[in-house]
Specification:
This protein is of the alpha/beta class. The chain has 2 domains: 152 residues, Response regulator (Rossmann fold); 165 residues, Response regulator (Rossmann fold, 3-Layer(aba) Sandwich). Helices cover 45% and strands 16% of the residues. The strands form 2 sheets. A 6-stranded parallel sheet has the order 2-1-3-4-5-11, with helices on both faces. A 6-stranded mixed sheet has the order 7-6-8-9-10-12, with helices on both faces. α1 runs parallel beside α7, α4 runs parallel beside α5 and α6 packs parallel to α7. The protein is elongated and about 65 Å long. The two termini are 28 Å apart. It holds the Pfam family Peripla_BP_4. This is LacI family transcriptional regulator. Belongs to the bacterial solute-binding protein 2 family.
């Protein structure tokens, strides 16, 4: 388990930013504090002997009933995340019910309350915000229901929060863009607030602008909907008409793959091959788009959504089994560049052959989990 690496990479990013511009201190205070917390998070521990024992703990011998509550489920990243949840829970012989709140945080909190009343064995959260979810999550903890959250700002004792190290994700993509632009150019920023990971990525973007003052933001737009990629494509098409000449726009930073998909399609259809797109997140659909001939999508920083989901499930099972789990766990992100991919089409299953370090997480694995999986066959 290599929990210190994401925090270290994020801290390195901040050091690089600060080295270039001392006035960025205020902009990076927030992520620095967050990373300090991540860095001090202890590796997952277990009750004496239980992690190494192949004997299945009594608490997980029965099929577990799990509720997964997601803030918004759109695009292939979300679908691959959901598939990862289902696969891992199924391998352990449990059952997971996924509730999509359609970006309604009050509905998300209500789903958590319903899960408590149904006396589920565990709750998984995907995104959400503490100001809306904390009261309900605290009720779940008080009721003895384990909770593991992904990409949220919850800070509740006993609740494990997994994230993709959004600060490193943003920096990896932005740094690549700055290098490709040689530190100078006009860019478009596609972004929307209201989501914890997007807010974190924006902190790095604001610091990035100070670090690279010759890279100018000439336009900003973005919204989250059930048709985010299509909406982004339409907005990007309108922007290209507003800036019709080569050199008007050099690049687009799109810190969500739904944004990157829409922007890339608009740019390609307009024949504006001088504009490059730099994104965050990756899925099979994204890979196909990146590998298309003439695709403007140059790079993306990402983790494997299905692998993150499986990790989240394993932490939950460890909690049910009575094992100790960390308060915070950051998944190591990787940079995927179009130039590093082969001409033949690849999938998420193949990407590890071309991106150094990409692979399945070995965190939150107890010896008894293999025994539990074998019993389901």
């Amino acid at each position: 388990m290599k929990q210190w690496k994401p925090a270290a990479s994020a801290l390195l990013a901040f050091s690089l930013l600060l080295a270039g511009c001392s006035s960025e201190q205020d902009a990076v205070n927030k992520p620095a504090a967050a990373n300090k917390q991540e860095k001090t998070a202890e590796p997952a521990k277990t009750a004496a002997g239980s992690q190494d024992s192949k004997e299945i703990p009594e608490a997980v011998k029965k099929p577990l009933k799990i509720a997964a509550v997601v803030q918004l489920s759109i695009g292939t990243f979300s679908s691959q995340y959901a598939q990862g949840l289902k696969e891992q829970v199924s391998e352990f012989g449990g059952d997971v019910q996924i509730y999509n709140a359609d970006n309604d945080l009050s509905k998300m909190a209500s789903y958590v309350e319903n899960a408590i009343s149904q006396k589920v064995d565990g709750i998984l959260l995907d995104h959400g915000r503490a100001d809306a979810l904390a009261p309900s999550v605290k009720k779940a903890v008080a009721a003895g229901i384990p909770v593991v959250s992904f990409d949220s700002d919850l800070n509740i004792p006993g609740v494990t929060v997994i994230d993709q190290d959004d600060y490193s994700l943003a920096w990896n993509s932005l740094r690549t863009m700055a290098q490709d632009l040689n530190g100078k150019g006009e860019i478009v920023y596609v972004w929307v607030g209201g989501f914890t990971p997007m807010e974190r990525r924006n902190v790095i973007y604001e610091a990035f602008k100070k670090r690279y003052p010759n890279i100018k933001e000439i336009a900003r737009f973005g919204n989250a909907s059930q048709n985010t990629a299509l909406d982004t494509q339409s907005q990007m098409e309108a922007l290209l008409q507003k800036y019709p000449n080569k050199g008007d726009i050099d690049a687009v930073f799109a810190p969500w793959d739904e944004f990157a998909k829409g922007a890339s399609r608009a740019i390609k259809q307009a024949g504006r091959d001088e504009i490059k797109v730099y994104g965050i997140d990756l899925s099979d659909e994204d890979l196909q788009l990146i590998q298309e001939k003439g695709s403007p999508w140059a790079a993306t920083a990402a983790t494997d959504p299905a692998d993150v989901a499986r990790l989240q499930v394993r932490f939950l099972y460890q909690k049910v089994a009575g094992e100790e789990t960390p308060q915070v766990y950051s998944v190591q992100p990787h940079l995927v560049q179009k130039s590093a991919l082969p001409e033949k089409k690849v999938s998420m299953d193949d990407i590890g052959q071309y991106v150094e370090g990409w692979g399945k997480s070995d965190a939150a694995v107890s010896a008894w989990m293999e025994t539990l999986k074998k019993e389901q066959k």
